[in-house]
Amino acid sequence: MNKTIRRASVFALLLVFALLLRATWVQFYEGRALADDTKNRRNAIETYAEPLGNIIVGGKAITGSAVTTGGDLRYKRTYTDGELYAAVTGYASQSYAPTQLEGIYADLLNGTDTRLKTALDTVTDKRADPGNVITTIDPDVQKAAYDALGDKKGAAVAVDPTTGQILAVVSTPSYDPSTLTDANTAGTAWKKLNADSDKPLTNRALRQPLAPGSTFKLVVAAAALEDGLYTSVDEKTESEDPYTLPGTRTVLKNENTSAPCENATIRVALQYSCNNVFAHMAVQLGQDKLRATAEKFGFNDDSQDVPVRAYPSVYPSGMDESSTALTGIGQFDVTATPLQMAMVSAALANGGKLVSPHMVSQITDGGGDVLEDYDDEASTTQIVSSSTAEQLQSAMQTVVEKGTGTNALIDGVTVGGKTGTAQNGENNSKAPYAWFTSYGKSDSSGKQVAVAVVVEQSDAARSEVSGNGLAAPVAKAMMQAALRS
């Protein structure tokens, strides 16, 4: 009898021990996972129990918080000029995971970042006052880009070449983040935005790489000068016109059949955007050398955080010579974001030095004390020699003064640029992409800016689609706003 009782007691103790072990596991392991689950209603209740911190542009908050009229979520996010800044802020929603700066700095903005806690907060386990995100965005440049793009589908980026500060990030068509903030109405707005064929939720400035067309010729020219294939932008090249792609019968023609492209110098080839020159130059260099130069400018970088993760711009590998030739004019599988092409112009404008681009200057606590300063952390890398940069600056000025980019001319500003028109769709069946990348330097103050613009679609007739006609005026408006004293 005693033996049976003992066995039962041991079994009961084992059950109790197993129960305690399970309870401990749930509390200290699964409990954390449950607490972090995005579907856990308590997280949303806690996040929106108090006003959020703000995202600052030009010294003013472009975000806010408003009291809700019902439910268990006390506050919701609000936006000032939401469509204008959507590509910068993203959205903070009661129903969906936050995006862009709202997502990256969610803990800072809702007060749960451990750096915000005071000693008293730690003792009382009180949620700290939220912090703020200070951006590098210039409101005048941002608005100039947004207004100039207007109803066009496209994107634009502006960068200060000397500091790496991103002055504008615009993607059109845009959307109003305020429509996604309230749980009661977010679902309807979400469905509508995702059903829109123009994809307004896509950040075209940072996250939609497209064929860069002739703007990529700047990278090819830089590679040729750095390699010593040519020593000057005014040295004649070996370039037959028209050019037959190696190993094929395909003849690569120039848009302007009367342009002096045969054996043209790099300056003239950029001025008239001679396809034959840069296609042949790409073959002469070879894909490995060309890729190496492209990667110095930022291509093939899958970890480019500004701090929003930008999608990588691509220079491909494993090509035959005919495909390599096509990469020389920014076609085949070459892709780039406006951010990437702005970086190309910025590095050339800055004497061949690329300063890491970033659109957040500082993050602060609720009292304004700086927690992190990203301006101080910006790194500088010598991409190409100062000689190469200076020569290409001069050639880019020729493009604007008397070449394909005259619509970017600005009184009192030295402007250098490059146009691009990239094929789109199978056999170029869709409207081409219109590109323009440039830099501007004020003749009076010396202040500089680099920009890149792509127009994917507009109401212009196909025959009128060009980088100079569609994208250069947008770049001009941005440069004028950035350099206005």
Mind explaining what this structure looks like?
With 485 residues, this protein is an alpha+beta fold. It has a domain at 211-370 and 380-483: DD-peptidase/beta-lactamase superfamily (Beta-lactamase, 3-Layer(aba) Sandwich). Helix content is 39%, strand content 19%. The strands form 6 sheets. A 5-stranded mixed sheet has the order 2-1-5-13-14. A 5-stranded antiparallel sheet has the order 7-6-18-17-16. A two-stranded antiparallel ribbon has the order 3-4. A hairpin with a 6-residue loop joins strand 6 (153-159) and strand 7 (166-172). Helix 10 crosses helix 12, helix 11 packs across helix 17 and helix 12 crosses helix 14 (321-327). The radius of gyration is 27 Å and the shape is elongated. The N and C termini lie far apart (99 Å).
The N- to C-terminal Cα distance equals 99 Å
Give the helix level as a range of percent: 25-40%
Q: How does the helix and strand content classify structurally?
A: alpha+beta
Spans where pLDDT lies below 50 across 5 or more residues: 31-35
- CATH architecture of the domain at 211-370 and 380-483, by name, is 3-Layer(aba) Sandwich
Strand order in the largest sheet: 2-1-5-13-14
Provide the CATH topology of the domain at 211-370 and 380-483: Beta-lactamase
Radius of gyration: 27 Å
Major sheet summary line: 5 strands, mixed
Q: Give the overall shape.
A: elongated
Q: CATH H level of the domain at 211-370 and 380-483: which superfamily?
A: DD-peptidase/beta-lactamase superfamily
Q: What top-tier CATH class of the domain at 211-370 and 380-483 fits best?
A: Alpha Beta
The count of DSSP E runs of length 2 or more, i.e. the number of strands, is 18
Q: Helix tally?
A: 18
